[in-house]
Amino acid sequence: PAERTTRRRGAGGAGIQTNWAMSVVLNKQFTTHFNAGATITPHAKDELGNSAATYAYNLGHSLVWTMHPRFNAFVETVFNRGESVIGPRQTQWDSQVFVNPGIRWAYNFSSGLQIVPGISAPLGVGPSSGEKGIFFYLSFEHPYRKIPRKNK
Asked: I want to staple 112 with a disulfide (CB 3.0 to 4.6 A). Which of 40, 90, 119, 143 is the partner?
């Protein structure tokens, strides 16, 4: 855990996270998604090993345009607000806001497998102004099959 903290890859301790998601089909071409979540890390650490409990929450929204049954354009908005350890039992709140336009497309296979690559360009706004990057996405979607119950 300490190595992850010095490399900024974690909170330096185990935590608990919950997320809620909802999707709404507006019409044949547009779908919107909403996400909300919270994280608690009871024993987070900083690079020096100082420890404190930290709290965070996240909100997200996306609008997906189905331009073709296998091609989508979308824009996502993500807001994260969380604490980081800055000293023994001391934390500091920080916020991030990103707008993320992108595209994704699908390859369908006769087995029902769907492979979905995509690319987007997250742009920082507000407290994240000036931050930008490229995000590559790859999803393997397997068909859902209900296992038949045996009659007793």
From this structure: 143
